[in-house]
Write a structure and sequence with these properties.
- It is globular and about 75 Å long.
- It contains 15 helices and no strands.
- With 341 residues, the chain is mainly α.
- It has a single domain, classed as P1 Nuclease.
- The longest helix is centred in the C-terminal third of the chain and has 29 residues.
- Helix 2 crosses helix 14, helix 8 runs antiparallel to helix 9 and helix 8 packs across helix 14.
């Protein structure tokens, strides 16, 4: 199985692949807006004000704005968080179901697997690898998991400020932190429901191509926003279909894999199964925006936006529900209150 991936991996590693985006800004805004629409009435009301809702929608584009900076440290740290090429895990002898939920432990696993299976990877061209990202398959599920944990922490300290004598400005700042984290986190969840962010076939098919899929290097950009712009897709077109958030399973037995990370990785694997159907739609001219059958292409991409909104809303809700009291902060606030008396 691994050996059959060699031509594909060699081909993709040898290309000068541009920085990839998932959805354009309007698409990412829609994912965040759909997620807001899916929250239950019991979710904290401060995120529902028009100002907060606009801030969350605006921040959906933040990680792509970071990609406009050419400085190498930011390019490396940010760029790898937008995708996971699942075929590369297989090539390194790894499986999505068993890789570590800890980013750097996984990095060590992948580096060891790549070293053990050099026949499955082409040499990296230093001239095309200034930011040193081509050695890696991407870290998207780790980025989503880490943002979930940051958001859960923010809900913890907000509630502690609210319940243990926090000052109004502290509460307002904690709320602002939550809004920021919700918005930026949404970008990566949106990335996860653009199927081309799960595969080496991210910008046209690479390697053996017996089904004759497109090799056009503009394919990714067309899926991100070109097609939606062509058909005039607007938030109001999908908002009535927004799906309700649900609390995700997080309980993890001692010594077992992180349950929430497993849910996110399973989601990525499910999205990767939609890569070929997407290419099939293109082959059948159903992603042109003008040919008969374009409504099928529209339905496919609307479904992807809805999936993104549902997952994001569920992650927000789960973070809020699972936030535990910040015991250290509570102790500090109680000391402050005692000293003020």
């Amino acid at each position: 199985m691994i050996s059959r991936l060699l031509p594909l991996l060699c081909a993709v590693c040898g290309l000068a692949v541009p920085a990839l985006h998932a959805w354009d800004y309007d698409g990412h805004r829609m994912v965040n807006q759909l997620a807001l629409a899916g929250l239950p009435p019991t979710f904290p009301a401060f995120v529902r004000t028009p100002e907060a809702a606009e801030r969350i929608a605006f921040l959906a584009g933040e990680p792509d704005r970071w990609r406009n900076v050419t400085d190498l440290p930011l390019r490396q740290a940010n760029g790898l968080d937008h995708y996971l090429d699942l075929e590369q895990l297989t090539a390194a002898g790894l499986a999505p179901a068993t890789v570590s939920a800890l980013r750097y432990e996984f990095a060590a696993q992948f580096a060891a697997g790549r070293a053990q299976h050099p026949e499955n990877f082409s040499m990296v061209d230093p001239a095309r690898n200034a930011d040193h990202t081509r050695e890696w398959p991407g870290f998207l599920p780790w980025a989503i998991t880490e943002y979930y944990e940051r958001l859960k922490s923010a809900f913890s300290y907000l509630r502690t400020f609210q319940e243990s004598g926090g000052r109004p400005e502290e509460i307002a700042n904690a709320q602002a932190d939550i809004i920021y984290l919700m918005g930026v986190m949404g970008h990566y969840v949106g990335d996860s429901t653009q199927p081309l962010h799960t595969t080496i076939h991210n910008n046209g098919w690479v390697g053996a191509n017996p089904k004759g899929y497109t090799t056009w290097e503009g394919f990714h950009a067309w899926i991100d926003g070109g097609f939606n712009a062509k058909i005039g897709l607007k938030p109001g077109d999908v908002a009535p279909q927004a799906r309700a958030a649900k609390v995700l399973p997080t309980a993890t037995a001692a010594g077992a894999r992180d349950r929430l990370f497993g849910e996110i990785m399973d989601h990525l694997v499910a999205e990767s199964a939609r890569v070929e159907p997407l290419y099939e739609l293109d082959k059948e001219k159903k992603l042109s925006g003008t040919m008969p059958g374009s409504e099928e292409g529209r339905a496919f991409l609307e479904e992807q936006l809805l999936r993104g909104g549902e997952l994001l809303s569920s992650l927000w809700l789960t973070a809020s529900r699972n936030a535990q009291p910040d015991t250290y902060l509570r102790a500090q606030l109680l000391k402050r209150q005692a000293g003020a008396k």
